[in-house]
Specification:
Elements (H helix, E strand, L loop, with lengths): L3 H4 L16 E3 L5 E4 L3 H6 L5 E6 L2 E6 L2 E3 L9 E8 L10 H7 L5 E3 L9 H9 L3 E4 L6 H14 L6 E5 L7 H12 L3 E5 L6 H8 L3 E2 L5 E2 L3 E6 L2 H8 L4 H10 L4 H6 L8 E5 L4 E2 L5 H19 L6 E5 L5 H9 L5 E3 L1 H4 L8 H8 L6 E5 L9 E5 L5 H14 L8 H12 L3 H15 L1 H9 L1 H22 L15 H9 L12 H23 L6 H4 L6 H9 L1
Helix pairs in contact: 5-6, 6-7, 8-11, 12-21, 15-19, 17-18, 17-19, 18-19
């Protein structure tokens, strides 16, 4: 049993005796004392406040009763008050207005991992649990995205959900076509990703349909949750649409004069997700420095434009445990976004082979590799290196691309090695498959390749980069060594936290259970940290949170 002197090193037992002028707890008619060993259970009951007090130099938990500040007189029923643990709701961890605006119960969002890894199944279960999920539309055809829209609108018509809109500089017309699709189906919330600048399609999406109602209030149908890791880009999202792009859209007849004029009063995105060290497209920025910078930027731009609806900042990258979630909220995040950890869940659009690979991932088992969508620009993304040679092979392809002007310039030995180890077919055959793909998806790429041998080489190399993620999602066994699995260090942190628990097993990982453990655990750790901040040092096993089954969490929350 812990004594006051054991857990408050600066106080001796004599100092723990109740003295006039101290804060003390009085049992009164309804107060009860409990052993310190019951602390983990008490922390789980988020709606029940309690205190830590001293009784005969032992730490006890006190429920009910009353707390007296700076009391000059005490009686024999008084106990020295050590710490107070207030109620803590999960909603209060983040921004309540964020939840109200989107119709959510919790400030939690699952990000849009591309190629349908953030699947319709994932979006559906998260939405039904009153959290926000974004469908991974990037990399999919228009037909595949349309099918996903139809399914989700039919399955969860009264629940909020989100679709991804990705910057697509190498696919002429695709971004515009996706925006057309979203506007046609009334998809009124998108999560943007990988943008290096604002484009006509994303501005058109945001501006289309803006009007004032009969009371003169601004109505903005289409909302954007933007992702950014650089201040200069975040500034663009938090600012009104650029006048130059508005004028271009006006000249095209894509928006009306009223829409263009009203657009000057709103930000491109009210909500901005600060993307730190994440899987996929990332600048590997540390959240602990990036998030405060973006919060300061938010305040600066809000003061400059005085928007009716205040700007908000969320956090993503490295979040996969209650501690990391609490850290983001403690720094001021309005909401959090998880990514890699959802790929490890059974509802994701990935394969069981990938889920097992992710279950064995450590924090250091990730590296950077070329991104298929911005290969020629040298843009990289973070992937799993344990169990896959994709990163090494992808970087080799980029090195060759930078070195030579065409396929014909590649030395014969290097070309033979590429065909044998990476492509497993001749480069001529790869080009034929590439030709067939782009002839249907984007014929301008073929035209450019016929005129520019270096672009042709890029398209051939992108064949491997593009299919490697699809092999992973489909679980193609003879291509496992080539799997491109987007993964950040958060996956390793999640595995370390869940080691030895039911969540260590891939087939036990469902997205809602993972989400609720992260959020509920963060609320419990918030209460535990409050004790520590009041100067009471407790043994680690008393204030840790281990994963719990979903029904157990729901039981505590319903009490």
């Amino acid at each position: 049993m812990s004594s006051v002197s054991d857990i408050i090193p600066s106080a001796g037992i004599a100092d723990a005796e109740v003295q006039p002028g101290q804060v003390h707890w009085h049992a009164g008619p309804n107060g009860q004392l409990f052993e310190l060993a019951t602390l983990p259970e008490r922390l789980c009951s988020l709606d029940v406040p309690f205190s830590l007090v001293s009784e005969q130099s032992q730490i006890k938990l006190a429920c009910g009763g009353s707390i007296h500040l700076d009391a000059n007189t005490v009686d024999e029923s008084a106990h020295q008050h050590l710490a107070f643990v207030p109620k803590q709701s999960i909603q209060a961890l983040g921004n309540k207005q964020f939840c109200q605006d989107y119709g959510l119960k919790y400030p939690y969002m699952t990000g849009s991992m591309a190629n349908g890894i953030a699947s319709v199944e994932l979006v559906e279960v998260i939405a039904k649990a009153d959290m926000l999920a974004s469908f991974g539309a990037a990399g999919l055809s228009l037909a595949e995205v349309e099918k996903a829209i139809q399914r989700l609108q039919a399955a969860i018509p009264d629940k909020p959900f989100c679709f991804n809109l990705i910057y697509s500089p190498n696919e002429k017309g695709h971004e515009d076509a996706i925006v057309d699709l979203y506007l046609r189906y009334g998809v009124d919330l998108v999560e943007t990703s990988a943008y290096m600048k604002l484009t006509l399609p994303v501005v058109r999406y945001r501006v289309k349909g803006i009007h004032k109602d009969a009371q003169g209030n601004m109505v903005v149908p289409n909302r954007i949750i933007a992702k950014a890791s650089r201040v200069e880009l975040a500034s663009k999202w938090f600012s009104p649409p650029p006048e130059k792009l508005l004028n271009e859209l006006l000249a095209q007849g894509a928006i009306t004069n009223e829409e263009a004029e009203l657009a000057k009063e709103i930000p491109m995105a009210q909500d901005l997700t600060v993307e730190a060290d994440s899987g996929g497209h990332t600048d590997n920025r540390p959240a602990i420095t990036l998030l405060p910078t973006m919060l300061a930027l938010r305040d600066q731009i809000q003061a400059e434009y005085n928007y009716v609806h205040e700007l908000r900042v969320g956090a993503a990258g490295g979040i996969a445990t209650p501690a990391s979630a609490l850290g983001a909220f403690a720094m001021g995040a309005a909401y959090i976004v998880t990514g890699t950890v959802n790929q490890a869940c059974k509802e994701s659009g990935s394969s069981n082979i990938v889920r097992n690979m992710l279950a064995n991932t450590g924090q250091a088992d990730v590296t950077m590799a070329p991104a298929v969508d911005m290969f020629e620009m040298g843009v990289k993304l973070q992937v799993l290196k344990r169990g896959s040679m994709f990163a090494m092979r992808g970087n080799k392809l980029y090195e060759i691309y930078k070195t030579y002007a065409s396929i014909e310039e590649i030395p014969a030995t290097d070309k033979a090695n590429l065909e044998k180890t990476i492509f497993k077919m001749s480069l001529e055959d790869v080009w034929q498959k590439t030709y067939e793909f782009f002839s249907e998806r984007d014929p301008s790429q073929v035209e450019k390749a016929n005129q520019d041998p270096k672009h042709k080489m890029a398209l051939i190399f992108r064949w491997y980069l593009g299919l490697s993620s699809r092999w992973a999602n489909a679980g193609v066994e003879d291509r496992q060594v080539d799997y491109q699995v987007w993964c950040g260090p958060a996956m390793g942190a999640f595995n370390e936290w869940t080691k030895g628990t039911f969540l260590a097993t891939p087939d036990q990982r469902d997205a809602v259970t993972v989400a609720m453990n992260i959020m509920y655990g963060a609320a419990i750790l918030s209460r535990a940290n409050g004790i520590l901040k009041q100067g009471v040092a407790l043994a680690g096993d008393l204030i840790q949170f281990q994963p719990m089954q979903l029904d157990a969490i729901e039981k505590y929350l319903s009490e």
